[in-house]
Amino acid sequence: MYSLLPVGVFCCCVLLSLNGEVTGNPNDVPLATDIVWSSINFKTILEWKPKPTNYTYTVEVYGKKSNALKSKYCIRTTKTECDLTSVMTNMSDTYTAHVSSVPNQQSEDPEEARYALSPKITPYRDTQIGQPKFSIEINEQKDWIKLLIEDPVSGVRKANGSFMTIREIFRDDFKYRVFYRRASSTGKKEAYTQSNEYKLKIDRGESYCFTVQAIIPSRDVSSQFGQESEMQCSPMETNFLNEYGIGAKLLVCAAVVIVIVAVIITAVVCKKKNDGKKSSNSEGLALNKV
Question: Which residue ranges run through the membrane (predicted)?
């Protein structure tokens, strides 16, 4: 009589295999790796790898001062990034994200899903401040320059739906550093202002170049400086000689010399003609007397 043990083992293996295909096993899907935060002007995005195959990701955020938070765009997603700006509303809180890998066969997220842990982030301390914009105004006498600085806009919305500026978030913990130099020089100086204006006494006719950078004084030195703005230069007063250089100056000098020579020659010729007429008139008078 043949033993039924091999047949029984085979059947159990088949059943276990089928059961795995139907229900899915969280341990069979890879965990997220290379998890990093990207945060500029409080627009905070979580990124990770790899691109999922036969499974999805669900992201939950936990703050020290808040319960578990989820974005509706980051539940059972096949993307490898998640914008969490809208749920991380307490900007001084410290957050950690759980990136769960969920098999496609799983009908609901398991309570004890396998997840990868993100680094910690405190938006108030860690978000990078983007480039500010500014315009240049010059007074009528052209001896003063005024910079009008525009506060960067954050990714955080007010109750009315509009976006807060960076200044509205940091309030008194915020100022600008201004770099400036003559356009003809490479050495630059710096100054600070807590307002949206900066004034500089200048030499008339000179062009000056500026860049502006936001500063958060309460932060560590490594993260207190924002991105530096694009450089802008004030216009230079130009005339024909300055605009066209030494060639124009030589041309003008040559023209002046030619004019002077022409005037001298004309004067000499006229004098000779006058002298000739006087001589002719004198001779005519002498003959008439005779």
Answer: 246-270
- Does 145 lie in the same domain as 54? no
Strand-strand pairing, 175-182 and 189-193: antiparallel
* 200 belongs to a structural domain: yes
Tell me the C-alpha distance between 120 and 64, whole Å.
10
Rounded to two decimals, the pTM is 0.71
Identify the pLDDT of residue 18. 38
Neighbouring CB atoms inside 10 A of 124's CB total 17
Residue type, 93: D
Residues 102 and 60: beta-carbon distance below 8 Å: no
Task: Specify if 174 maps to a domain.
Answer: yes
Q: What is the mean pLDDT of the chain?
A: 84
Extended beta strands in 94-143, E state: 95-103, 115-117, 133-138
pLDDT at 227 over 90: yes
Residue 15 has pLDDT above 60, yes or no: no
Please indicate, yes or no, whether residues 82 and 138 belong to a single structural domain of this protein.
no
For the chain, count helices (H), then strands (E).
Answer: 4, 16
Centre a 10 Å sphere on the Cβ of residue 168 and count the other Cβ atoms it contains.
Answer: 14
Taking the C-alpha atoms of residue 45 and residue 172, their distance in angstroms, rounded to an integer, is 27
Range of the domain at 110: 29-126
CA distances from 140 to 9, 44, 154, 202, 205 (A): 96, 45, 36, 13, 12
The residue from 110, 126, 142 where one domain ends is 126
Domain boundary among 126, 141, 168: 126
> Does residue 254 sit within a domain?
no
Do 58 and 149 fall into the same domain? no
In whole angstroms, how large is the CA radius of gyration of the chain?
A: 41
Cβ neighbours around 154 below 10 Å, total:
24
Spacing of C-alpha 66 from chain mean position: 32
